[in-house]
Amino acid sequence: MRIFRGFGEIPQLKYGVATIGSFDGVHSGHMELLRRVNEIAAQHGGESMVVTFEPHPRYVLGSGERLRLLSTLDEKIVLLGRAGIDAVVVVPFTVEFSHTSPREFIERDIVGSGIRSLVVGYNHRFGYNKEGDYNYLEARSVGLDVHMVEQQQIDSSKVSSTIIRQAVAKGMMEKARQLSGHPYLILCDVSADGSVSGVGEHKLLPADGRYDAVVNGKPAEVEISDGVLRICDTGFSGRVEIEL
Fold first, then answer.
1. How many CB atoms lie within 10 A of CB 53?
2. How do residues 136-189 score in pLDDT, each as one tens digit?
3. Would you report the helix, strand and coil content of the chain in percent, each value rounded to 5?
4. Which CATH code for domain 2-154?
């Protein structure tokens, strides 16, 4: 997978196919978007891409004081790679960037970067004041093929990052896995005594308790106490992947 830090790093593309969003948790509700991106890219011999933002826009726009995320940027990139995405464009999100008009964003950043096809969710909005959406794209000839994906549901539950956050916060990891479509991923550094560091600043940890886990592919147990994570089993050190 290739990682581009902003649109200016993207080289000439044969046929870029992209979707846009925060993709927190890269969950089942996102997977149909990613599947369609991969499918269209394969049809054209092109490159499947995700355009995402760092930091999360809510932190920049003042509405994210208490927001805890399902995925750090590194975790998101890992999950997108597992979903078969070829490239991730990480756009630095600033107050200045938030004032980009829908037209400028699409024409300068998306089309201007060689992206030829765009897959969006049924409720995706973009640009200043969220003025752009699927209907905006459909109503204008912007040099893009545009595809919309409907909302995804699992067992009659609407899938969203918010609902999964609620499950994780309560320690309901089976429900979180069901809605996500994969185990809950935590990338961190661990010492020989099981103490953990390097968990993302805004990372959401499950409720206090002991949990069965897989650490670097091996069964293990982790404990969370007062919001601090540790691995109960010895034998792990360095950078690890914890799956709950």
1. 20
2. 888 876 779 999 988 775 555 678 899 999 999 999 999 999 999 999 999 999
3. 30, 30, 40
4. 3.40.50.620
